[in-house]
Amino acid sequence: KSFHVVAVVGSLRKDSYNRALLKEAIRAAPEGVTIDVFDQLADMPFFNQDQEDIETPAAALAFKEAIRKADGMLVVTPEYNSGLPAVLKNAIDWASRGTPSVFKNLAVGIMGTSPGALGTSKVQQQLKQSLSGLGAYPLAAPDFVLPLYKSQFDDEMKLNDPKTVTRITKYLDRLRELGLCLNAIRPKL
Ligand code: FNR
Question: Which residues form the NADPH-dependent FMN reductase-like domain (predicted)?
């Protein structure tokens, strides 16, 4: 049976480097790991508990369902002002609702790329904190950051360095390892 990952990108822009990184992750996925992109983050209004009481938006329900059905999650995100892009945090807030949460005991991989030297390391810490608070298990190590993105991608937005591709494959293997352990204790939702 294959290990099924639901993936989201924290950037909405068309030429996003982080989206390009996710595409490369899909190509680099180890045998038996499949990645499906959930692409409706922008369809969720700002989280509002009043609205939640009336009707949860369709995109938020779809996100929860995609997480519920997946064996693990992959978040590929840029860093905005040393933290989380609002659209990503908003989606997490919507999907976090319910008891138990779909995030409980969920394995989550985090990847990101940036033009600077730290390669999204600060947003990754913030994301780990949020996810841990939800009872999810962000992969503790290794971290996957890709700094200095201008030198990492070619004109077709493919990765230049085969070692980076290998690093992605290994990272996704670790995510699967963690996810397979955790799936035994995920709530049956
Ligand atoms: C940024 N950028 C950025 N980069 C970074 O490494 N640390 C940061 O704190 C920030 N802050 C920040 C804030 C805002 C509002 C924007 C729009 C951008 C630069 C960012 O990494 C760059 O725009 C990336 O290209 C965004 O990722 P995508 O869209 O290419 O995936």
Answer: 4-147
